[in-house]
Structure formats: C-alpha cells, structure tokens
Amino acid sequence: MTDQDKILAEVTQNEYKYGFFSDIDTDIIDRGLNEEVVRTISKKKNEPDFMLEFRLGAFRKWQKMKMPNWAYLKVPPIDFQDISYYAAPKKKELKSMDEVDPELLDTFNKLGIPLEEQKHLAGVAVDAVLDSVSVKTTFKEVLAEQGIIFCSFSEALQEHPDLVRKYIGQAVPVADNFFAALNSAVFSDGSFCYIPKGVRCPMELSTYFRINAANTGQFERTLIVADDDSYVSYLEGCTAPMRDENQLHAAVVEIIALDRAEVKYSTVQNWYPGDKNGKGGIYNFVTKRGICRGVSSKISWTQVETGSAITWKYPSCILIGNNSVGEFNSVAVTNNHQQADTGSKMIHIGKNTKSTIVSKGISAGKSENSYRGLVKVLPGAINSRNFSQCDSLLLNDTCGAHTFPYIEVGNKSSIVEHEATTSKIGEDQIFYCNQRGIDTEKAIGMIVNGYAKEVLNKLPMEFAVEAQKLLQISLEGSVG
Amino acid sequence: MLKIFILKMLSIKDLYVSIDGMEILKGINLEVKPGEIHAIMGPNGSGKSTLANVLAGKEEYEVTHGEVTYMGKNLLEMAPEDRAKEGLFLSFQYPVEIPGVPMVNFLKTAVNEHRKYHNEKELTAGEFLKFMREKMDLVEMRSQLTNRSVNEGFSGGEKKKNEIFQMALLEPKLAILDETDSGLDIDALKTVAHGVNALRKPENATIVVTHYQRLLEYIVPDVVHVLYKGKIVKSAGKELALQLEEKGYDWIKQENEN
Fold first, then answer.
1. Which candidate, A220, A224, A152, A154, places its Cα nearest to that of A186?
2. A13 DSSP assignment
3. Pairing of strands B22-32, B10-19
4. What strands lie across the sheet with B231-236, from one edge to the other?
5. Alpha carbon of A198 to those of A147, A201, A232, A279: distances in Å?
6. Hey, of A389, A427, A435, A441, which one would you mutate to test binding to chain B, going by the most B CBs within 10 A of its CB?
7. pLDDT grade, residue A210 (50/70/90)?
8. Which of B79, B80, B101 sits opposite A450 (nearest CB)?
9. Of B83, B92, B99, the CB nearest to A432
10. Which residues in chain B are contacts of A428 at CB distance < 8 A?
11. Which residue of A362, A468, B88, B190 has the smallest Cβ count within 10 Å?
C-alpha cells in the first residue's frame, strides 16, 4: 500500500505542481479568477451568449459568497486565486505499460480491469485502432437511432443550445451554494444527456463510452433530462484508482425528470484519498440534485464513495410532481485521514410523494465519516412518506462516525421514519471467519460487503462486482 | 518390519492461560490420538470454553506458560486461519451472525481457502453446490438456511446444526465441539450426534466440551476429563460421565477443596 500511495502521490501531486506551467504548448490562462477569465473561458469554447450570461451571473454571485463551514470537515484554506481556471488538463502520457507503477497494475488486476482500460486509466497513450473505439461508435449509433442525445457539454452547447438553455440551472440554480456558483462560472466540460419522450435507453450510459470523456477536468458539469415516459440508467466514474492532478473538484450534476420518467444515477468514486498521513488527496465538493418535475417521476441516486481526502456531497431530490419518488442509496468508506460529510436532501412538494434514504458509512483508520441529511415535507405535500436508515460501521477505536439528520414536516398526513445504528466490526465475526480458514483481510471484505449489500444490490451488475472488490481493497490493512 | 506410528494428534503440556490478567487455565495436560473421542466436562466457569478457544487461536487469551503441539507443529505459533486449514475445527458455543453474507458464499469461500492451502483446485460454484447438497442431508439442513445470511434468523438448534454442517464440509482432523448440546431439544441433539458420528474416521479425533452427560449417550467418548478451576482433576473412561451425572459436580468440588 505504501508504495502505491507514494507512486499515486507522485503522479498526482507532482503533476499538479509542475504540469500546469511546464507545458508551454497547452492552452492555459493565468491563475486567478475575475470576470475577464470567465469571458475568456466562454469565448475559447465558442459558447452561445446565454451561456456567457449564465457564467457571469454565477460569478457575480460567487464573489459575494463564502465557503460553507457547517460540515463536519476540516478543510485547509483554499486560495481560489491560485488556480488556473482554463487549462485543458494534460496528463503526462506514459509510453508503455512498463512505465506504470507495478503496485497500481496489481490493483488494476485485483479489480479485474481489462488491459486496454488499464492503459487508459494509467495514462498510457492508447492506440487509436482499439476495439473499444469501434465499440464506442456502435454505441453512439444505437443511441442516435432512438433519438437519444449523449455528448460532451461543449458539444451540446454547439449542437443543442436550446435544450441546454431550457434546462440548465433548473435543479441547481447558479447561486445555490458556493461551489455550485463557482462551477457555474468556470465549468470546463462535462456530459449532456437527453432521453426523448417514451424512450427507454437500451443500455447503461457511462461516461466511459463517450469519446473524449476522460479528463473533463476539475469543474465538471452534467445535465441529464428525461422527457415524459422515458427511462435511463447513468453510470458515473469508474472503479479503478484514477490519476488526477487536480486537487480541488467542484462538480455539478443536474437531473430533470418529466412526467413518469425514471432516472437512475450510479456513482463509484475512487479518487486519490491522500497518503496514510493525510497528505495530498482530492477535495471533492459536489452538488448533485435531481428534480422530479413530472407526475409519477422517479430519480434514484446510488453511490459508493471510497476515494478523495475530503468529500462534501449531498445528492438530493426535489419531488415536485405528485406521486413522484426519490431514492438515495449510499456506501461511504473512509480510511486513514479521509473525511466525508455526505448524505441527501429530500424535499417533498407534490402530493403523495415518497422518498427513501439508505446510508451505510464505514470508517477505518483515523477518518471521520458523517451522514448529514434533510427530509423536508412542505404543507402541501399531503400523504407523503419518507424512510431513512443511517448505519455506521466502525473498524477501530480511532475513527469517527457521526449522524446529523434534519427533519421538517409541514403537514399531518405525512409519515417520516428515521432509523440509525452504529456498530463496531465484531472481532467475534472475524474470528468466526478465521476459524473457517478465511484470513482477516478477506473476512473484513466479506463482512463489510455484507453490511453494504443493500446498497450494492442497487448498482448495475458489473458495477456492483467491481464495487465489492473496491470496498475490500480500500480497507486492506485497516484492522489489526 | 512392523512400523508402529504412535502419532499424537494433539499434545497439551502444562498450559496456563489468562484473560485480562485473570488466570483461567492453570496447568492443563492432555493428549489426544487419532481415532479418539475425548470429553471435557466440568462445572460452569471451570475453563472449558477457554480451552476450546485457545486451541482455535482466539486472540484475547494470553498463553502465559506451556506448549501445544498439533500434528507435530507448534500450534500456538499458528494463525487461527492456518490452524483451521490444518484441520482444526471449532464448533462454536455461540455461532455469530454475519448479516448480508449468504451462507453459501461464506461456505464456498471457506472450502476453497482450505483447498488452496492444500494445493487443490478450487471448486466452481456448480461443483460446490453439488458437494454442499451431499453434506446437507447429513444434518438435515434445510436448503432455505443456506440461502440466508450466516446464522442470521437461525434458531438455536439450527445454528448448532449449521456448525456440524460446516464441519462436514471442511472435513477436519480434530473437531472441538464447544457445548454443542446446549439449547438443543432431544431430536436436534440426536441429529447433531448422528452427524458427528457419521463423520468419524479412524484418523480423526474429536474433543467434546460439555456440561451435561446427555450428549455423551449419543457420542460415546473414549476418555472423560473433568476440568475444575482451570485444571484437569480427573480422567477416566466413559463411566465417569455417568458418575458425574449421578453425584453432580459437588462431588468433584468437595474432593478438590479438601
């Protein structure tokens, strides 16, 4: 682990330190953030006017905002003027797999990642005549036949500006919070997805299948619109340890579900968590929100979070349409010095709206793992229901688990339930496994996976298998 | 030439064990040969379960003195999982629940860890299921149970049957049954005993730890030891169990207090 940490640290931090300046060829603008920078970004991307106005509006509001400090996190000061906001993130390309750290390859193999994908993830130049390229093209064709739009955000702004204009900022208004405002002002790229009326997307949409999907940078923006009676399952991220030279990440994900539409959004996040002593690692400040705007629409968030030094993330649902449904299923693992403050918000506005929150926190090392959630039922949201279950599992005596539930119910016909448990991993359970010939590391993997099963079961199958292995790997060496 | 192997499977010499600074076992001596069944009896708190757990390698027990040799190796130096894979099996007095882990997965992992250790090919899911079904009949294990999480929602009797079922799958050389009879009704007791007897082989040995004589009617021991205050105070044939049943443990207590 130490070697891997070291190499990962080298790869991530060194490039962060030097990469931005040594690459003279790269399209970089000076560090710092001001109105001119926002204009430049928009101009370089050849964006329509409304986008520039959107960015400027966000920037002006951001200037008046302060970084939130209510989370149970110790965030080192971030100098927002010390970041370059437009640098096509160039990674040092390695020439062959021989140059990749063997420990990293070992992890890839443990996860069962195919070789070509390994190259992609490790930053090795991938031959253009790959099978995967043709696979990607095939995917695109199948999607286009159904009228599904799935492309980069920049492309969407050029090809489908009216759609973007209609929906952007609906779920996450520009000034929603400090990080969302920052993202709205300077976002680099991201994904756009539109599912037309009555279409069930025939495959799991994954950023991996989108050409040029990787390296969208630190201010990523995703917008998913599901029109009436449509369905889509969307996968974000990948289970391999991602190299990433950006320390601060502030992404925004917006989902709009219209009448009877259903969107499933699954994330597996495994960014560099910092080393054993808490040095380095990604700060992940994400705003994810879905609006169930249509009647009987449904949005479900499923996340497995094992990476990042700091995670600040509350995927939420605003249930406007009558009979709409919101779900949040989460497994958050923290080890060593990682800190996570994560949870969900369910805002019930329409009648007969339903929401479920299942949160499983797993803490090890000296980490702090918090669940923070809000369930708010407005007076008009009669006959609404919420069920929340927040479980925490501690692997030792030096880590922390915290639960901060907020509940506001505005009428008498709604029912809100909250259950919470905190338990320590049982030495008896581990010994029982040992006595049957299963070593401690495997035993912990098994017990933790059993504990998180309810959530893992919500992931698409291939993803779930990788997530299971990932849980085991992230906790290696955490007990005993 | 006649070759005579007097192999001692397990040899415990002058074993002292403490937990949290309190001495529980105070100089245990015990030898078990292949094919033998030993019963260890004694009143509550005499150290029976401690002995079973120390042999299995439970961490919180501290061995302060003595040695234990198992199949020619120093048992106390082996990790608990290696002891298991070397054929030492403990049927737990209180089998633990592991929520969310299906019994089938747990067992397949355990069996394949054993096979890997012995350089045997791991069983595929199909092969394992077939193997498992054969063994299920032995203890009348209901098939729904193997689909549940490990011991979760099992009745007391089902948990104990499940222990013997696992023993059947792992085919140990030395099985230690820790109070396997406690909490069993007479039918379950018979089923469990039947399972144990059916698994008996000349090269295997069993240590039955029990408070009551009841189980020993069905699993007949070669030797009965009485453990009292951390020492084996009496060893004799199976008739000792009956004597204990008749006279109660007070008889032992009185003999040893004077």
1. A220
2. I
3. antiparallel
4. B88-91, B174-178, B205-210, B37-41, B223-228, B231-236
5. 11, 10, 11, 49
6. A435
7. very low
8. B101
9. B92
10. 96
11. B190
Mean pLDDT of A86-105: 58
**Nearest CB neighbour to B170, from listed A426, A433, A436:** A436
Q: What is the pLDDT of residues A414-430, one digit of tens each?
A: 999 998 888 888 888 99
pLDDT of amino acid A68: 85
Chain B residue nearest residue A429, CA to CA: B96
Q: Within chain B, which residues score under 70 in pLDDT? A: 1-6, 258
pLDDT in tens, A240-271: 455 555 577 888 999 999 999 999 999 888 77
Whether A454 sits inside 8 A of B100 (CB atoms) is: yes
Chain B CA closest to residue A441: B81
Length of chain B: 258
Task: Enumerate domains of chain B plus CATH numbers.
Answer: 3-257 (3.40.50.300)
The distance of A114 to chain B (nearest Cα, Å) reads 22
What is chain A's mean pLDDT, rounded? 79
pLDDT at position A190 is: 82
Give the burial class of A45: count Cβ atoms within 10 A of its Cβ; 0-12 exposed, 13-18 middle, 19 or more buried.
Answer: middle
A464 shares contact with chain B (CB less than 8 Å): no
Closest CA to A27 of A101, A89, A97: A89
Q: pLDDT value at position B138?
A: 77
Contact state of A432 with B81 under an 8 Å Cβ cutoff: no
Q: Do B117 and A437 touch (CB under 8 A)?
A: yes
* Mutation target among B58, B83, B98, B178 for the A interface, most CBs of A within 10 A: B98
- Residue A440, classified by CB atoms within 10 Å of its CB into exposed (0-12), middle (13-18) or buried (19+), is middle
Element (H, E) at A254: strand A252-257
Q: Give me the pLDDT at residue A22, please.
A: 29
- The pLDDT tens digits of the residues spanning A427-477 come to 889 999 999 999 988 898 888 888 888 888 888 776 777 777 777 777 776
Q: Does A77 touch chain B (CB under 8 A)?
A: no
